Amino acid sequence: MRYTLYDIQQMPRIPRLTLINAISGFKSANLVGTIGPDQTPNLAMFSSAVHIGSEPPLLGIITRPVDGALKTTRHTYQNIKSNGFFTLNHVQEDILKSAHQTSAPYPDGVSEFDAVGLTPVYSELLPAPYVAESHIRIGLEYVEEYAIKANNTLLIIGKVIELIIPDDCVDAQGNLDLAYAGTVALSGLDTYYKVEMLERLGYARV
Amino acid sequence: MRYTLYDIQQMPRIPRLTLINAISGFKSANLVGTIGPDQTPNLAMFSSAVHIGSEPPLLGIITRPVDGALKTTRHTYQNIKSNGFFTLNHVQEDILKSAHQTSAPYPDGVSEFDAVGLTPVYSELLPAPYVAESHIRIGLEYVEEYAIKANNTLLIIGKVIELIIPDDCVDAQGNLDLAYAGTVALSGLDTYYKVEMLERLGYARV
Question: Where in the sequence is the domain holding B153, given as residue range(s)?
Fold first, then answer.
Protein backbone atom coordinates (compact mmCIF):
# COMPACT_ATOMS: atom_id res chain seq x y z
CA MET A 1 0.00 0.00 0.00
CA ARG A 2 1.11 3.53 -0.74
CA TYR A 3 -0.54 6.40 1.08
CA THR A 4 0.02 10.04 0.22
CA LEU A 5 -0.75 12.78 2.75
CA TYR A 6 -4.05 13.25 0.89
CA ASP A 7 -4.88 9.54 1.27
CA ILE A 8 -4.11 9.72 5.00
CA GLN A 9 -6.29 12.81 5.43
CA GLN A 10 -9.17 11.07 3.62
CA MET A 11 -9.14 8.07 5.98
CA PRO A 12 -11.87 7.79 8.63
CA ARG A 13 -10.60 9.08 11.98
CA ILE A 14 -10.16 5.78 13.87
CA PRO A 15 -8.26 3.89 11.14
CA ARG A 16 -6.08 6.98 10.62
CA LEU A 17 -5.31 7.25 14.35
CA THR A 18 -4.63 3.51 14.48
CA LEU A 19 -2.30 3.53 11.48
CA ILE A 20 -0.35 6.71 12.23
CA ASN A 21 0.18 5.69 15.85
CA ALA A 22 1.95 2.54 14.60
CA ILE A 23 4.17 3.78 11.77
CA SER A 24 7.15 4.90 13.85
CA GLY A 25 7.86 1.27 14.87
CA PHE A 26 7.89 -0.31 18.31
CA LYS A 27 7.27 1.95 21.27
CA SER A 28 7.71 1.74 25.00
CA ALA A 29 4.69 1.20 27.25
CA ASN A 30 5.15 3.16 30.44
CA LEU A 31 2.74 3.80 33.27
CA VAL A 32 3.21 7.40 34.32
CA GLY A 33 2.54 7.91 38.04
CA THR A 34 1.64 11.30 39.52
CA ILE A 35 -0.21 12.62 42.54
CA GLY A 36 -2.92 15.27 42.60
CA PRO A 37 -3.34 18.30 44.87
CA ASP A 38 -6.01 16.22 46.73
CA GLN A 39 -3.40 13.42 47.16
CA THR A 40 -5.18 11.10 44.68
CA PRO A 41 -2.52 8.99 42.96
CA ASN A 42 -2.95 9.00 39.18
CA LEU A 43 -1.72 6.46 36.66
CA ALA A 44 -1.80 6.73 32.87
CA MET A 45 -0.28 4.77 30.00
CA PHE A 46 2.12 6.67 27.77
CA SER A 47 3.79 5.35 24.63
CA SER A 48 5.77 8.50 23.90
CA ALA A 49 8.70 8.25 26.33
CA VAL A 50 11.83 9.34 24.49
CA HIS A 51 15.49 9.43 25.52
CA ILE A 52 16.68 13.04 25.53
CA GLY A 53 20.16 12.57 26.96
CA SER A 54 22.28 10.76 29.51
CA GLU A 55 24.40 13.61 30.91
CA PRO A 56 22.31 14.79 32.70
CA PRO A 57 19.90 11.81 32.48
CA LEU A 58 16.77 13.20 30.77
CA LEU A 59 13.60 11.65 29.35
CA GLY A 60 10.70 13.28 27.55
CA ILE A 61 7.02 12.45 27.11
CA ILE A 62 4.56 13.96 24.63
CA THR A 63 1.12 14.87 25.91
CA ARG A 64 -1.87 16.93 24.93
CA PRO A 65 -2.46 20.17 26.77
CA VAL A 66 -5.13 20.38 29.43
CA ASP A 67 -8.02 21.29 27.16
CA GLY A 68 -7.75 18.52 24.57
CA ALA A 69 -6.53 15.54 26.53
CA LEU A 70 -8.02 12.30 27.70
CA LYS A 71 -8.92 12.59 31.36
CA THR A 72 -6.07 10.41 32.61
CA THR A 73 -3.37 12.17 30.62
CA ARG A 74 -4.88 15.57 31.47
CA HIS A 75 -4.54 14.73 35.14
CA THR A 76 -0.98 13.58 34.51
CA TYR A 77 -0.02 16.96 33.10
CA GLN A 78 -1.85 18.95 35.79
CA ASN A 79 -0.22 16.87 38.50
CA ILE A 80 3.28 17.19 37.05
CA LYS A 81 2.83 20.95 36.84
CA SER A 82 1.46 21.26 40.37
CA ASN A 83 3.95 19.08 42.23
CA GLY A 84 6.95 18.80 39.91
CA PHE A 85 7.54 15.04 39.92
CA PHE A 86 6.45 11.95 37.99
CA THR A 87 7.42 8.31 37.63
CA LEU A 88 7.74 5.97 34.65
CA ASN A 89 7.01 2.32 35.34
CA HIS A 90 7.64 -0.49 32.86
CA VAL A 91 4.85 -2.90 31.96
CA GLN A 92 5.30 -6.67 31.98
CA GLU A 93 2.93 -9.32 30.65
CA ASP A 94 1.62 -10.07 34.18
CA ILE A 95 0.20 -6.55 34.57
CA LEU A 96 -0.57 -5.82 30.93
CA LYS A 97 -4.37 -5.78 31.16
CA SER A 98 -4.39 -3.66 34.31
CA ALA A 99 -1.86 -1.29 32.79
CA HIS A 100 -3.82 -0.85 29.55
CA GLN A 101 -7.04 -0.36 31.53
CA THR A 102 -5.61 2.82 33.12
CA SER A 103 -6.41 4.56 29.82
CA ALA A 104 -10.17 4.28 30.50
CA PRO A 105 -11.83 7.61 31.42
CA TYR A 106 -12.33 7.15 35.16
CA PRO A 107 -14.17 9.96 36.99
CA ASP A 108 -12.33 12.69 38.89
CA GLY A 109 -11.31 11.56 42.37
CA VAL A 110 -10.97 7.90 41.34
CA SER A 111 -7.39 6.64 41.41
CA GLU A 112 -6.53 4.42 38.47
CA PHE A 113 -4.40 2.40 40.91
CA ASP A 114 -7.56 1.38 42.78
CA ALA A 115 -9.64 1.03 39.64
CA VAL A 116 -7.30 -1.41 37.92
CA GLY A 117 -5.75 -3.11 40.95
CA LEU A 118 -2.18 -1.84 40.91
CA THR A 119 -0.31 -0.74 44.04
CA PRO A 120 1.16 2.73 44.61
CA VAL A 121 4.47 2.76 46.46
CA TYR A 122 6.59 5.76 47.41
CA SER A 123 10.28 6.57 47.70
CA GLU A 124 11.62 9.20 50.09
CA LEU A 125 13.14 10.99 47.09
CA LEU A 126 9.98 12.11 45.33
CA PRO A 127 6.28 12.64 46.05
CA ALA A 128 4.96 10.74 43.00
CA PRO A 129 3.78 7.12 43.21
CA TYR A 130 5.62 4.21 41.68
CA VAL A 131 3.82 1.04 40.59
CA ALA A 132 4.90 -1.68 43.04
CA GLU A 133 4.26 -4.39 40.42
CA SER A 134 6.57 -2.83 37.81
CA HIS A 135 10.03 -4.38 37.65
CA ILE A 136 11.75 -1.25 36.32
CA ARG A 137 10.82 2.15 37.78
CA ILE A 138 12.12 5.62 37.05
CA GLY A 139 11.62 8.66 39.28
CA LEU A 140 11.75 12.02 37.51
CA GLU A 141 11.79 15.69 38.39
CA TYR A 142 10.08 18.09 35.97
CA VAL A 143 12.63 20.26 34.13
CA GLU A 144 10.87 22.10 31.33
CA GLU A 145 8.27 21.82 28.59
CA TYR A 146 7.91 22.84 24.96
CA ALA A 147 4.60 23.71 23.33
CA ILE A 148 4.61 22.12 19.86
CA LYS A 149 2.89 24.57 17.53
CA ALA A 150 2.25 22.09 14.72
CA ASN A 151 -0.52 20.31 16.64
CA ASN A 152 -0.83 21.91 20.07
CA THR A 153 0.89 19.13 22.02
CA LEU A 154 3.54 19.39 24.72
CA LEU A 155 6.97 17.85 25.16
CA ILE A 156 7.58 17.48 28.90
CA ILE A 157 11.15 16.87 29.98
CA GLY A 158 12.13 15.26 33.27
CA LYS A 159 15.46 14.53 34.93
CA VAL A 160 15.98 11.01 36.29
CA ILE A 161 16.51 11.29 40.04
CA GLU A 162 15.97 7.63 40.92
CA LEU A 163 16.15 4.36 39.04
CA ILE A 164 15.04 1.01 40.42
CA ILE A 165 16.04 -2.14 38.50
CA PRO A 166 16.06 -5.81 39.55
CA ASP A 167 19.67 -6.78 40.41
CA ASP A 168 19.83 -9.56 37.83
CA CYS A 169 18.68 -7.34 34.93
CA VAL A 170 21.69 -5.04 34.73
CA ASP A 171 25.44 -5.70 34.47
CA ALA A 172 28.51 -3.63 35.40
CA GLN A 173 28.75 -2.25 31.83
CA GLY A 174 25.27 -0.74 32.18
CA ASN A 175 23.60 -3.28 29.89
CA LEU A 176 19.94 -3.56 30.88
CA ASP A 177 18.21 -6.81 29.89
CA LEU A 178 14.66 -5.69 29.14
CA ALA A 179 13.61 -9.15 27.94
CA TYR A 180 14.69 -10.69 31.25
CA ALA A 181 12.91 -7.89 33.11
CA GLY A 182 9.76 -8.85 31.21
CA THR A 183 9.20 -5.40 29.71
CA VAL A 184 6.72 -5.52 26.81
CA ALA A 185 6.86 -3.51 23.59
CA LEU A 186 3.88 -1.62 22.17
CA SER A 187 2.71 -0.97 18.64
CA GLY A 188 0.11 1.66 17.85
CA LEU A 189 -2.49 2.30 20.51
CA ASP A 190 -3.22 -1.11 21.96
CA THR A 191 -1.11 -3.97 20.59
CA TYR A 192 1.49 -5.46 22.92
CA TYR A 193 4.44 -7.69 22.08
CA LYS A 194 6.91 -9.83 23.94
CA VAL A 195 10.48 -9.77 22.75
CA GLU A 196 13.42 -12.06 22.20
CA MET A 197 16.97 -10.75 21.89
CA LEU A 198 18.50 -11.08 18.45
CA GLU A 199 21.89 -9.51 18.91
CA ARG A 200 23.98 -6.90 20.70
CA LEU A 201 26.03 -5.32 17.93
CA GLY A 202 28.32 -2.94 19.81
CA TYR A 203 29.83 0.33 18.69
CA ALA A 204 30.04 0.56 14.89
CA ARG A 205 33.48 1.28 13.42
CA VAL A 206 34.42 2.22 9.87
CA MET B 1 19.68 -2.08 42.13
CA ARG B 2 18.70 1.41 43.18
CA TYR B 3 20.47 4.35 41.57
CA THR B 4 20.04 7.93 42.72
CA LEU B 5 20.92 10.84 40.43
CA TYR B 6 24.21 11.02 42.31
CA ASP B 7 24.91 7.32 41.63
CA ILE B 8 24.16 7.85 37.93
CA GLN B 9 26.45 10.88 37.77
CA GLN B 10 29.26 8.88 39.42
CA MET B 11 29.12 6.09 36.82
CA PRO B 12 31.85 5.95 34.15
CA ARG B 13 30.65 7.55 30.92
CA ILE B 14 30.08 4.44 28.77
CA PRO B 15 28.11 2.39 31.34
CA ARG B 16 26.05 5.52 32.12
CA LEU B 17 25.29 6.11 28.42
CA THR B 18 24.46 2.43 27.99
CA LEU B 19 22.14 2.28 30.98
CA ILE B 20 20.31 5.59 30.49
CA ASN B 21 19.74 4.90 26.80
CA ALA B 22 17.87 1.71 27.79
CA ILE B 23 15.69 2.79 30.70
CA SER B 24 12.75 4.18 28.73
CA GLY B 25 11.91 0.69 27.41
CA PHE B 26 11.83 -0.60 23.85
CA LYS B 27 12.53 1.86 21.09
CA SER B 28 12.09 1.98 17.35
CA ALA B 29 15.09 1.52 15.07
CA ASN B 30 14.70 3.75 12.04
CA LEU B 31 17.14 4.52 9.27
CA VAL B 32 16.82 8.22 8.51
CA GLY B 33 17.51 9.00 4.84
CA THR B 34 18.53 12.47 3.65
CA ILE B 35 20.44 13.97 0.75
CA GLY B 36 23.24 16.52 0.91
CA PRO B 37 23.78 19.69 -1.13
CA ASP B 38 26.36 17.68 -3.14
CA GLN B 39 23.66 15.02 -3.80
CA THR B 40 25.35 12.44 -1.52
CA PRO B 41 22.60 10.29 0.02
CA ASN B 42 23.03 9.98 3.80
CA LEU B 43 21.70 7.29 6.10
CA ALA B 44 21.79 7.24 9.90
CA MET B 45 20.19 5.11 12.59
CA PHE B 46 17.87 6.90 14.98
CA SER B 47 16.13 5.40 18.00
CA SER B 48 14.27 8.55 19.00
CA ALA B 49 11.34 8.60 16.56
CA VAL B 50 8.26 9.65 18.49
CA HIS B 51 4.60 9.95 17.49
CA ILE B 52 3.55 13.59 17.77
CA GLY B 53 0.05 13.37 16.32
CA SER B 54 -2.14 11.86 13.62
CA GLU B 55 -4.16 14.90 12.46
CA PRO B 56 -2.00 16.13 10.78
CA PRO B 57 0.31 13.07 10.75
CA LEU B 58 3.47 14.20 12.56
CA LEU B 59 6.58 12.41 13.84
CA GLY B 60 9.54 13.79 15.75
CA ILE B 61 13.18 12.80 16.13
CA ILE B 62 15.69 13.99 18.71
CA THR B 63 19.16 14.87 17.51
CA ARG B 64 22.24 16.72 18.65
CA PRO B 65 22.96 20.09 17.11
CA VAL B 66 25.63 20.43 14.48
CA ASP B 67 28.55 21.05 16.82
CA GLY B 68 28.17 18.08 19.15
CA ALA B 69 26.86 15.33 16.94
CA LEU B 70 28.23 12.14 15.50
CA LYS B 71 29.12 12.69 11.87
CA THR B 72 26.17 10.72 10.45
CA THR B 73 23.55 12.42 12.60
CA ARG B 74 25.19 15.81 12.03
CA HIS B 75 24.83 15.27 8.28
CA THR B 76 21.23 14.23 8.83
CA TYR B 77 20.40 17.51 10.51
CA GLN B 78 22.30 19.65 7.99
CA ASN B 79 20.59 17.87 5.10
CA ILE B 80 17.11 18.19 6.59
CA LYS B 81 17.70 21.90 7.13
CA SER B 82 19.08 22.46 3.64
CA ASN B 83 16.50 20.53 1.61
CA GLY B 84 13.49 20.16 3.89
CA PHE B 85 12.78 16.44 3.57
CA PHE B 86 13.75 13.17 5.22
CA THR B 87 12.64 9.55 5.31
CA LEU B 88 12.23 6.99 8.08
CA ASN B 89 12.83 3.38 7.10
CA HIS B 90 12.09 0.40 9.33
CA VAL B 91 14.78 -2.17 10.03
CA GLN B 92 14.21 -5.92 9.70
CA GLU B 93 16.47 -8.76 10.81
CA ASP B 94 17.76 -9.25 7.23
CA ILE B 95 19.31 -5.75 7.12
CA LEU B 96 20.10 -5.37 10.80
CA LYS B 97 23.90 -5.43 10.58
CA SER B 98 24.00 -3.07 7.61
CA ALA B 99 21.55 -0.75 9.33
CA HIS B 100 23.52 -0.64 12.58
CA GLN B 101 26.76 -0.11 10.65
CA THR B 102 25.45 3.24 9.33
CA SER B 103 26.32 4.66 12.75
CA ALA B 104 30.07 4.30 12.04
CA PRO B 105 31.83 7.65 11.41
CA TYR B 106 32.34 7.47 7.63
CA PRO B 107 34.27 10.35 6.04
CA ASP B 108 32.54 13.30 4.37
CA GLY B 109 31.48 12.49 0.83
CA VAL B 110 31.01 8.76 1.54
CA SER B 111 27.39 7.65 1.37
CA GLU B 112 26.43 5.24 4.14
CA PHE B 113 24.23 3.51 1.53
CA ASP B 114 27.37 2.52 -0.42
CA ALA B 115 29.44 1.84 2.68
CA VAL B 116 26.99 -0.65 4.20
CA GLY B 117 25.39 -2.04 1.03
CA LEU B 118 21.86 -0.65 1.19
CA THR B 119 20.04 0.77 -1.84
CA PRO B 120 18.70 4.32 -2.13
CA VAL B 121 15.39 4.64 -3.96
CA TYR B 122 13.39 7.79 -4.66
CA SER B 123 9.73 8.74 -4.88
CA GLU B 124 8.50 11.62 -7.04
CA LEU B 125 7.03 13.21 -3.90
CA LEU B 126 10.22 14.06 -2.06
CA PRO B 127 13.95 14.48 -2.76
CA ALA B 128 15.19 12.32 0.15
CA PRO B 129 16.24 8.68 -0.35
CA TYR B 130 14.29 5.73 0.94
CA VAL B 131 15.96 2.42 1.75
CA ALA B 132 14.79 -0.05 -0.90
CA GLU B 133 15.34 -2.99 1.47
CA SER B 134 13.08 -1.56 4.22
CA HIS B 135 9.58 -3.00 4.26
CA ILE B 136 7.96 0.07 5.84
CA ARG B 137 9.02 3.54 4.65
CA ILE B 138 7.85 6.98 5.66
CA GLY B 139 8.46 10.18 3.69
CA LEU B 140 8.45 13.39 5.73
CA GLU B 141 8.54 17.12 5.15
CA TYR B 142 10.34 19.24 7.76
CA VAL B 143 7.86 21.34 9.77
CA GLU B 144 9.69 22.90 12.72
CA GLU B 145 12.28 22.29 15.42
CA TYR B 146 12.66 22.98 19.12
CA ALA B 147 16.00 23.60 20.82
CA ILE B 148 15.93 21.74 24.13
CA LYS B 149 17.73 23.91 26.65
CA ALA B 150 18.27 21.19 29.26
CA ASN B 151 20.98 19.47 27.20
CA ASN B 152 21.36 21.34 23.91
CA THR B 153 19.55 18.79 21.74
CA LEU B 154 16.92 19.38 19.07
CA LEU B 155 13.43 18.00 18.52
CA ILE B 156 12.82 17.97 14.76
CA ILE B 157 9.21 17.58 13.64
CA GLY B 158 8.19 16.28 10.23
CA LYS B 159 4.84 15.81 8.52
CA VAL B 160 4.19 12.44 6.88
CA ILE B 161 3.67 13.04 3.17
CA GLU B 162 4.08 9.45 1.99
CA LEU B 163 3.78 6.05 3.60
CA ILE B 164 4.75 2.77 1.94
CA ILE B 165 3.65 -0.48 3.61
CA PRO B 166 3.48 -4.06 2.25
CA ASP B 167 -0.17 -4.82 1.34
CA ASP B 168 -0.43 -7.79 3.66
CA CYS B 169 0.81 -5.87 6.74
CA VAL B 170 -2.12 -3.46 7.14
CA ASP B 171 -5.88 -4.00 7.35
CA ALA B 172 -8.88 -1.75 6.60
CA GLN B 173 -9.06 -0.67 10.26
CA GLY B 174 -5.54 0.74 10.02
CA ASN B 175 -3.95 -2.03 12.10
CA LEU B 176 -0.32 -2.36 11.10
CA ASP B 177 1.28 -5.75 11.81
CA LEU B 178 4.88 -4.83 12.64
CA ALA B 179 5.80 -8.41 13.55
CA TYR B 180 4.67 -9.65 10.13
CA ALA B 181 6.55 -6.76 8.50
CA GLY B 182 9.67 -7.99 10.30
CA THR B 183 10.35 -4.70 12.08
CA VAL B 184 12.83 -5.14 14.95
CA ALA B 185 12.75 -3.40 18.33
CA LEU B 186 15.79 -1.74 19.91
CA SER B 187 16.98 -1.44 23.47
CA GLY B 188 19.68 1.01 24.48
CA LEU B 189 22.31 1.81 21.88
CA ASP B 190 22.89 -1.50 20.14
CA THR B 191 20.69 -4.39 21.28
CA TYR B 192 18.05 -5.60 18.84
CA TYR B 193 15.02 -7.79 19.49
CA LYS B 194 12.48 -9.67 17.46
CA VAL B 195 8.91 -9.57 18.66
CA GLU B 196 5.88 -11.79 19.03
CA MET B 197 2.39 -10.38 19.44
CA LEU B 198 0.84 -10.94 22.85
CA GLU B 199 -2.51 -9.23 22.52
CA ARG B 200 -4.48 -6.40 20.95
CA LEU B 201 -6.47 -4.97 23.85
CA GLY B 202 -8.69 -2.38 22.17
CA TYR B 203 -10.06 0.85 23.55
CA ALA B 204 -10.27 0.77 27.36
CA ARG B 205 -13.69 1.51 28.89
CA VAL B 206 -14.63 2.18 32.50
Answer: 26-170
